[in-house]
Amino acid sequence: MPKPLLEVQALDAYYGDFQALFDVSLSIEEGAITAIIGANGAGKSTLLKCIAGAMPARREAIIFDNQAIGGEPAHRVLARGIALVPEGRRLFPSLTVEENLLIGGQSGRPGPWNLARVYQLFPRLAERAHVLAPALSGGEQQMAAIGRALMSNPRLLLCDEISLGLAPIVIRDIYANLPLLVAEGLSLVVVEQDIVQALRAARQVYCLQKGRVALAGEASALTREKISAAYFGV
Amino acid sequence: MEWVNTILQGILLGGLYAMFAAGLALIFGIMQLVNIAHGDLIVLAAYIALLVTEALGLNPLLSLVIVVPVMALLGYLLQRGLLNRTLGNDLLPPLLVTFGLSVIIQNGLLELFTADSRKLQAGAIEVASIQLGGGLAVGILPLIQFVVAVTVIAALQWLFYHTALGRAFRATSDDQAVAQLVGLDNRHIFALAMALSLAVVAIAGVFLAVRANFDPTIGPARLIFGFEAVIMGGLGSMWGTLVGGIILGVAQTVGAKLDPGWNLLAGHLAFLTVLALRPGGLFPKVQQR
Q1: What is the DSSP letter of A96?
Q2: Which of A115, B180, B207, B269 is the most exposed place for a label (fewest CB within 10 A)?
Q3: CB pair distance less than 8 Å for A78 and B164
Q4: CA distance B234 to B230
């Protein structure tokens, strides 16, 4: 097995007194799509936030490219090459689509992604470059959010619920683009409630349940029964 | 014609108020920080200008070359060293800390410069004026002040909408958490915003000190004028602060013309009227989502 790009080791996370993650360990392969599935409140988004530096974590709990980065501020994690597409898109509403993309590139990491490349990947965005972000449809907003993350030229792209609230045909479109990103050398983590979508796209799957890893394995080797057991805890 | 003249003077005065307001609007818009010490920082800038003009024998307007960078640096350090620590989900800590700062600045200035009124002397330019015909005349100095105010507002508006820094300011204002996720260091962005705010404060302070007498205690009243102009203008556009400042300036001069005692009262009434009719100000910020 190739050396993992990112390793999470015995990560605990808290919201005040409430513990959201318990001893979570997993590893993310380079150049592949890893899916993290689980029911509402299982801790999927919390895990991504810890990795991206938006929540505190023990330093050694997150190892990226052989360096302990847990608890580093988000802007420094981004500079290392980890970008997050947040749940619910969270585009900047008073910025135009193009400005939203440009701000993603402001960190100055070198790499292949720039405005032209993002517009090539998502031609709809080029047509709507100068409208304010809230005027976009849900699918276009999701493309812009992914584009904004790509503009920082990440090595690892964390996608939180990118299918949430979108029409099935739009979801299919967006997922069709993910293998193209992997072909560019990116590694992806997709967090999904939509299991079918996640299993189809990913090589490796982790299932979280109530803040713990309930199941891990190759997507092709997991049976429906095993997944439902891990997902619902029955 | 007398009334036209009054209104004209009010508009020119409004430029000064717009400069008071612009710095306040800038930091409130970006980091929801209500800077109670804003007025006292204006007065501090006036005293720094006083020191510079006395030490170097410069014209007060030329002293801006020194006062502006000094105040901007002070703003950056103040934000990085103190105010960033007070920011969070609660509006109260920054309010209390800047209130304390206001007391410290007033008493510090009182200790250093005594309670005597001071004024910056700009020389012959102070009494020079242009005849517009028909008995109308505008002073050169108020005119310069107004032109500078419009230039400052235009520059801020340009910076906000046409530069990478302005983009970062607007993004941080929209959503601080996501701004950090896309790689912006909030602490640095906030410090730059405060530096910019105090650079504008420096300009306002020098014009205030050339225009009239000042002493260490006049800060809080300047703060109120700034607030009123911000609220009347709304947080949607920097031009709003100019309009708010002009409304306040015109109301004050018209009030004073009717009865010298109505000067401040008329300004406050204009403010309350706008607040009652347009609570979001004349240029409200676009509602998010």
Answers
A1: B
A2: B269
A3: no
A4: 6
Contact B71, B41 (CB under 8 A): yes
Confidence (pLDDT) at A230: 84
A115–B contact, CB cutoff 8 A: no
Specify the pLDDT at position B287. Answer: 52
Rounded to whole angstroms, what are the CA distances from A43 to A40, A145, A223, B59, B274? 8, 22, 23, 64, 48
Average pLDDT over residues B110-118: 95
| CB within 8 Å of B57: residues ≥ 6 apart | none
B-chain CB neighbours of A132 within 8 Å are 286
- At residue A21, the pLDDT reads 94
Which amino acid would we find at residue A43?
Answer: G
Q: Which of B162, B173, B175, B178 to mutate to test the interface with A (most CBs of A within 10 A)?
A: B178
Q: How is residue A232 written in tokens?
A: 């619902």
The pair of structure tokens assigned to B207 is 């014009």
Find, among A61, A59, A63, the residue nearest to A73 by Cα: A59
Residue B284 has pLDDT above 90, yes or no: no
What count of Cα atoms within 13 Å lies in the side-chain half-sphere of residue B115? 2
Where does the pLDDT of residue A219 fall: very low under 50, low under 70, confident under 90, or very high at 90 and above?
A: confident
Average pLDDT over chain A reads 91
For residue A59, the one-letter residue type is: R
Contacts of B83 (CB under 8 A, 6+ apart): B33, B94, B97, B98, B190, B194
Read off φ and ψ for residue B26, nearest 5 degrees.
-55, -55
- Which range is least confidently modeled, A77-81, A197-201, B2-6, B144-148? A197-201
pLDDT at B289: 37
Q: Which amino acid is at B236?
A: G
- B215-232 burial: b if 16+ Cβ within 10 Å, else e: bbebbeebbbbbbbbbbb
